[in-house]
Amino acid sequence: MDEVKKQTKRTPAERETEEVAEEARRLFFYHAETGLILRRCYWKGANIGEEAGGEFHGKDGQIYRLISVCNSRFRSHRIAWLLHYGEWPLLNIDHRDGNGLNNRIANLREATVQQNGMNLKMSSKNTSGVTGVSFKKSEGRWIAAIALHQKQIRLGYFRNFEDAVKARKEAERKYGFSERHGTKEATLVPPASCDRIP
Questions:
Q1: Which strands sit side by side in the sheet containing 72-75, from one edge to the other?
Q2: Considering only 115-124, 135-144, 177-186, which range has the smallest mean pLDDT?
Q3: Which residues span the domain enclosing 37?
Q4: How far apart are CA 99 and CA 63, in angstroms?
């Protein structure tokens, strides 16, 4: 059964075809200032002008909208990029403010996996209150670390918490992490509204 699932699961490149792009353009209108993707036509009980898709809670704890096109589901930020720029994004899409529901074009950027990871909020599993800092019981000291290019770099062991935090923050600045990285919450954005579609 797992073998069949692996064979039928398509990569984004296989799903993000020109045929799907044409259908998305026919079905939806994207309002770049509000980030809303609205319906251009009636579809399965949804009215013209209604927001497309539904909320989805990702494994990372982030909330996104998913939109169905041609029997495939896409994260709404990928559809937004397509509708605004006329082509599918080549890389991942990063929400600058960390809010997966804020699809305003000014909030979206193409990013590598590494760049996206440098803009993540704090993991819900974090116990120290600072990303990349943890207490190692066997050593009786704090450890600071940072991940770059899918490799963990140890910044050192420290007797006090403040020194470990300082080492982590210096590494974030050195390697170009966003100021929002490791914060507890995404930047909250007031709900967007759009009066009409063209």
A1: 54-57, 63-69, 72-75
A2: 177-186
A3: 2-117
A4: 8
